[in-house]
Design goal:
It is built from no helices and eleven strands. It has 111 residues and is mainly β. Strands 2, 4, 5, 6, 9, 10 and 11 form a seven-stranded mixed sheet that branches. A four-stranded antiparallel sheet has the order 1-3-8-7, with no helix packed on it. 32% of the residues are buried.
Length: 111
Amino acid sequence: VQLVESGGGLVQPGGSLRLSCAASGFTFSSYYMSWVRQAPGKGFERVSSIDLGGGTTYYADSVKGRFTISRDNDKNTVYLQMNSLKPEDTAVYYCMRALVDWGQGTQVTVS
C-alpha cells in the first residue's frame, strides 16, 4: 500500500489549497478514504471521509462548508479542496485508507 500526498504549502487566511493523494498497491475503488490532520501539539482529527463511489461523505464540524472531499477511481486519487482557510487549519494532513494505512503527510500552513 502506498499513499502519496501532495498540494500542501503556505497560504494566507481566506485562501485555498487542493490536496491530492495518489494511491497504489491496492484496489482503490474498494476502500473508503479519509483525510486526517494533526495540528502542532495536538492529537489527530479526522477531517473528512468518502465512501467507495464518492456518494457519501463525512466532514468534521470544524471544516464543514469549507472543505470538499472527492475521489477519482480511474486515477486512484482522492482530493481535499480546502477553501476559506483559517490559521487553525494549520496541520500536517494525512491521507488514509480505511483509517488504517497512512501516507507520509503534507504540511499546510495558514498564516
